[in-house]
Amino acid sequence: MVLYVISLITIITAMMMLYQRWWRSNIPPGPKPRFLIGNLHQMKPHWTHSFAEWSQTYGPIISVWMGTNLTIVVNTAELARQVLRDKDHQLSNRHRVARMTQNGTDLVWSDYNPHYVKLRKLCTLELFSLKSIENFRSLREMETRSMLESILKDLTIMQDSGDVDDQVHKPVVVRKYLGAVVLNTISRLMLGKEFKSEEGEEFKAIVHKEHLLAGTGTLFDHVWWLEWVSSWVISDKNFLEHKVRRTKWFRGAVMEEEDAVAEDHEGFVRKLLVLKEKNELSEETVVSLVWNMLTAGADTTAVVIEWAMAEIIKYPIVQKKAQQELDSVIGFERLMTESDISKLPYLQCLVKEALRLHPSTPLMLPHKASETVWVGGYKVPKGTTVFVDVQSIGRDPANWENPEEFRPERFLGEDIDVKGRDFRVIPFGSGRRVCPAAQMSLNLMALVMGNLLHCFSWSSPIPGEIIDMSESPGLLSIMTTPLQALASFHSGRSGVHRISLD
Length: 502
Description:
Helix content is 50%, strand content 8%. The protein has 502 residues and is α+β, with helices and mostly antiparallel strands. It is a single-pass membrane protein.
């Protein structure tokens, strides 16, 4: 009997070793992992920095072990094409960390399944179809006008507070206005209302904390059996406090009661509650989907515009060219509208260049292999997490001349699509998981940037000062130091009364 047990254990062990050897064979090269922790001890706060350094040694497709979980990272346009188009069907699921990803009941973190298809179709029809985008155009233009009025008000207060030249020495925090215009646009779209000032500030703080939590992790998130153990014996105080804070805000600002009825709400939420009452959507899905739209829509757009404004201040010639185009097409008697965008090719290039150099999510949200596939000549075993390094692809010298330079002109000679068709620049992803709000986001970026440049000229508070272009670690590429700039009336608009807000 003892010999039988020993033999059985030996056979099982041998089979497991053979399976592990097969499973790990032909996977991409990468840094040598340590037992249990993999390469976690080598990861920098900015994961993209670690991946970029390892790619210099091991090539454009690398294996990184997050604990016991295999992660494969690709950072060239050709490999991105294989992941997002050629093998899209097998690589469209999501890798999820249970504490941060809504258990997959939402749109962003759901696997590619009928539930995902249903939610995506709903969002596209109600919010992101060309018809819907056109229907909500006046809303975006109204919120952009409110942003300009807010800037004018602050400049006027500076001017009236003392010496006329005071405004020259008092920069504005650009993020304040960008965050407000984007959040107000999304909240009116989703809820039919704007958040109160304190609600908006609390929302921004919660989202910032969530991005930081999502961009970090513990060993318990990356070792499969520790994930199960931790759910029983470990309490993540930071996350639990964050979850309570988020729920409290949501119940106060969005839906006060769990049994909310459609008649008490407007916007997209009303449609979701109607479906909930018909038992077509669960309470958890409604809440998760609303949170998806608010967070993904508000922060990602504002982040890119802030980076763009920083680059414009660094390169005054870019600002001059954009303003000359705006003055020529629009003049000085009215504000820019979305219908003007098609006549402003340089402005469109400016938006594309900002997305190339500063994508809001440097790493595309993690895909997961639903079956074993081959990418770039290497095996991607079933269950593997796959990252597409969007930032590295956008800065690849094989595709872009002087890739670190902000130069919108590079898009003038070639009609390059940024919505997932051209894999050299994929800020919105591609394939089955492409961002459904890409076109609306592009319109809003162009509208906001165009009006900021048409009405004001922007410069650094201290001549010759180097702007801090570093980014905070986390899911989003957020400027570490909020951009501060001097806003003066653009030539031709020599005073408040020259800006037509009627």
